[in-house]
Specification:
alpha/beta; TIM Barrel; 8-stranded parallel beta barrel; 13 helices; 16% strand; globular
Length: 408
């Protein structure tokens, strides 16, 4: 199966440095030097579309712009790019959510994907008027998605559950195609809901052996439901012509983080109820000197950002190798991002995607022969250049001088 790549829209702001934010991060930690205007987000979206990304993920929460409204605007400045809209089931009725998705799908000509976020931070949920505990939130999501899927099938729904109640619910028009549901969660309460309702199960970027264990767990649960899922992973990326250049950029990002910022963010994240967030924190342990937790997998982003906290760092060939490694575990969809999101989309799109294409792992969704090679002055041209490995050729010296070795 060929791989699918998605990009990320920084609706909390962008920068040449790591932008804080995410669930559990204190208010005011988000924001960057590039505001999330429709003009700038549209520039990222159009670039991602041209480079060969299938969709763009937008986050949800008080720390960023609303995902539904932002992406609806961006459908008018793009042609093919789909939008992976993150939303929380507890904040609107299932009938309204099903109707919104149907409208979006119809007016965008089928460009909606849905990322269901149950919510792992009770204090943030309460700010929106949701006072359920974590396990009850997953039980409510289970009922919510049962109703939504029935409505999308054109059924009239009467449901009297512990958390959701609708009578005579029906859509005037069902979405065509039905939006696929992306769902992540690492807790025992999350697994059965993901297995029962998701089309794509998502994990954050953990080392391959941990990802393999998680996928095996979800596969067993899906088999019990008589279902077969697809699997995706959420990662940041720093891809460069050489390994030394990539690690130099990682060090530059790290040097831009103040110790007091790390302390403030980690104090906020420590109260997170999210099992996935706890696993992200365990990878870096608040330490600056033990951040390469697996070959080419760097946990520095998670020092000041909630949620996805790891990045693939290396030469284009090394990044392609790591992607192939995750693919061998069963991952077929990759949701990527990098700082700044505009420039990093080109580094990856022009540097890594052609290598994966030549290995038979990727094809451009528009059917063109290659990712664009000369779209912006800072983007590396397609094909081998001095100091850049050709497809299939290993890059010299993966670790830059003084870069810490991989953690055990």
């Amino acid at each position: 199966m060929t791989l699918t790549f998605h990009w990320f829209l920084p609706t909390n702001g962008d920068s040449r440095d790591i932008v804080g934010g995410g669930h559990g991060v204190p208010a005011g930690a988000a924001g960057g030097s590039r505001p999330p205007t429709t003009a700038y987000l549209g520039q990222i979206a159009r670039s991602a579309e041209q480079l060969g990304f299938v969709a763009a993920l937008t986050p949800t929460g008080a720390w960023c712009e609303d995902a539904w409204l932002t992406t609806a605007m961006l459908t008018e400045v793009t042609e093919r790019l789909k939008f992976l809209v993150a939303f929380r089931p507890g904040l609107l009725s299932p009938t309204l959510a099903a109707q919104m998705a149907s409208t979006f799908q119809r007016l965008s000509r089928g460009r909606l994907l849905l990322n269901v976020v149950t919510g792992g931070e009770s204090h943030e949920q309460r700010a929106y008027g949701d006072f359920l505990g974590k396990d009850d939130r997953y039980a409510r999501t289970d009922e919510f998605l049962h109703i939504v899927r029935a409505l999308w099938r054109g059924e009239t729904v009467d449901h009297h559950g512990a958390h959701q109640r609708v009578e005579g619910a029906r859509l005037a028009s069902v979405p065509d195609p039905t939006p696929p549901i992306y769902f992540g969660g690492s807790s025992q309460a999350a697994g059965p809901v993901a297995a029962r309702h998701s089309d794509v199960y998502l994990t954050w970027g953990e080392p391959p052996h941990q990802v393999a264990e998680k996928l095996a767990w979800i596969r067993r649960l899906a088999e019990q439901e008589g279902r077969e899922l697809r699997y995706g992973i959420r990662l940041h990326v720093i891809a460069r012509d050489t390994s030394e250049q990539a690690w130099a950029q990682a060090r530059r990002l790290l040097d831009g983080i103040r110790d007091e910022d790390i302390a403030a963010v980690q104090a906020g994240l420590a109260r997170s109820e999210s099992e996935g967030q706890k696993r992200m924190i365990a990878l870096h342990g608040d330490a600056r000197d033990r951040l390469e937790i697996s070959p080419n997998l760097w946990a520095g982003v998670g020092l000041v950002r909630g949620g996805a906290g790891t990045a693939l760092v290396g030469s284009h060939t090394e990044i392609a190798d790591r992607i192939a490694e995750y693919h061998a575990l069963g991952i077929t969809e990759f949701i990527l991002s990098g700082y700044p999101h505009l420039e990093e989309a080109y580094w990856f799109g022009e540097g890594v995607l052609p290598i994966l294409r030549d290995r038979g792992l990727w094809t451009h969704p528009a059917g063109v022969g290659d990712a664009p090679g000369t779209l912006v002055p800072f983007g590396a041209p397609a094909g081998p250049t001095p100091g850049r490995p050709a497809p299939g050729q290993s890059a010299p010296g993966r670790l830059a001088p003084n870069e810490p070795a991989a953690a055990s």
